[in-house]
Amino acid sequence: MAPSAAAQRIVIENCAIATVDADDTEYASGYLVVADNTIESIGAGSAPQGLENVVRRIDGTGHLVTPGLVNTHHHFYQWITRGLATDHNLFNWLVALYPTWARIDEQMGRVAAQGSLAMMARGGVTTAMDHHYVYPRNAGDLSGAIIGAASEMGVRFTLARGSMDRSKKDGGLPPDFAVETLDGALSATAETVDRFHDASFGSMTQVAVAPCSPFSVSTELMKQGAELARAKGVRLHTHGSETVEEEQFCKELFGMGPTDYFESTGWLGQDVWMAHCVHMNDSDIAAFARTGTGVAHCPSSNARLAAGIARVPDMLKAGVPVGLGVDGTASNESGELHTELRNALLINRLGAHREAALNARQALRLGTYGGAQVLGRAAEIGSLEAGKLADFVLWKLDTLAHASIADPVTALVFGAAAPVTASFVNGKQIVEDNRLLTVDEDAIARATRDEAQRLARIAAQG
pTM higher than 0.90 for the full model? Predict the structure, then answer.
């Protein structure tokens, strides 16, 4: 849609630009013109002359401009349980932490969401998502608290409304008091979609249907969850093939591996994305490619929980959409996505493809356009192109940390974490010099400590 005659314009000039478009177009020195909330033009050299209603000009000398980062998997509530169970594999880690997580309430959920979002946004994330699946009885409006925090922060957001109905008594991992009923989970999920999902172009809030995982969800919840999502026209998200223990669990309980189980329940398709997908064989990857099922790759969390190395190069070669995820901060205490660009590249080079696994530009694509694909928003975000939404980041690369790296994309991915001079969402600046403009970071830090201590006291009381 063409900007109106009264559109207000922001001009960024004299910067290196990595567009991450289909041709990986880059400019050693170029410009970006924003009209209201969309990108009007982009190119090499100086911005066009005679632009009207220019309200701001930014000299981008020493900076690289990229699309905003897109986070495709997270659990915000874990922000207030960081640093626990640090030497556990996935199943033991879950068993250790579920009893604490099952005590969260609306205030804890709001503060944890604020902390998780703040760490990502100040590090270049412009689109975030949260897979929230812990809904204790009488905990208050958790979904509303999370979405409210994202709105306050000014980031584009997808809430993956999760659920669990398979507890210990049914052969699952969560304690019995930590799960919902089948009907309760489906009803609450439908209500969340109706209340919050905005399917329009440029939407700031969307909702996905997201039963937690095969080992915490009944087959009926998986099947009816998929039916609900498609009836509502929203996307589907869950955990898949994260560990060898999960694969064994699926074979013992369902008589098949995770991918075959997902297909049997309607959980493969272009409207689906899975978190992790570490233990995928050739047949699994082919099934994801054939159906267009996406993957949220979470390298730091996979390493933290000793899950393994996902076959990302093979997925990309097969045509599987792949984005990056922070995952919950109880398994990735940094809570940052920009560090995942580097970690994705380095960890994948420990796999079978070694130095040919990923390069810097592939890593940047995973964190931007790949994430937009996985969230179903590649027509709106993920690359810098005329007509797309003005979600972008100015990375400062002229300091000591990157001084001797000539290529800016290499500097961003291989080098130390680059400072964010400015981050824009929908044409509005939300970060300046690594500080959030929309919220009080220090107040969030204080609230984080208070709510983490309160949760620990409640959990200790049993």
Answer: yes
